[in-house]
Design a protein that fits this description.
Distance between the termini: 164 Å
Keywords: Cell cycle, Cell division, Coiled coil, Membrane, Transmembrane, Transmembrane helix
Protein name: Cell division protein
Oligomer: single chain
InterPro entries: FtsL/DivIC
Shape: rod-shaped
Pfam family, one: DivIC
GO biological process, one term: cell division
Radius of gyration: 54 Å
Number of helices: 3
């Protein structure tokens, strides 16, 4: 016959083991929450830094685009400046001025009777009077010339 062996069990030991297991589970949950929070925090920092870097890259790209536009504008303005310098030199040319005066204003070179010469070295009153008389006669001859030019 078989006889069952008598064992003496203490329930207090078993209860403490359960409490330890429950405490271990709570500690694991707390440590898991801590690890999860650390992971979320680190990923948030990485995400924010990536967004910051992308915004800076976009800003740099915008600045480069503005610089290239300004460089193109400088080139066009330099071309325009050189064209204006050439045109200025052309305008300064007395031959061109004379040609434009003849074409647009219908100017002609002065005739000998239209010229008045003044002697600035002499202070004679007689010579100044003669010059004034010549002006009067030239004035009337100028009016006659204008009337004749109309026809």
């Amino acid at each position: 016959m078989l006889v069952a062996k008598k064992e003496h069990h203490s329930y207090t030991k078993h209860k403490t083991k359960r409490k330890k297991v429950i405490k271990n589970k709570n500690n694991r949950k707390k440590s898991n929450i801590g690890v999860k929070l650390k992971i979320i925090f680190c990923s948030a920092i990485v995400f924010v830094s990536c967004i910051f870097l992308l915004s800076r890259y976009a800003y740099i790209t915008k600045i480069r685009l503005d610089v290239s536009k300004l460089e193109k504008e400088v080139v066009t303005l330099n071309d325009k400046k050189s064209d204006l310098k050439i045109e200025l030199e052309k305008i300064k040319d007395s031959g061109w001025i004379e040609q434009q005066a003849k074409e647009k204003i219908n100017m002609r070179p002065a005739r000998e009777d239209q010229l008045i010469y003044i002697n600035v070295s002499s202070n004679d009153k007689k010579s100044n009077k003669q010059i004034a008389e010549n002006k009067d006669s030239n004035f009337f001859s100028g009016i006659v010339d204008k009337i004749l030019n109309m026809f």
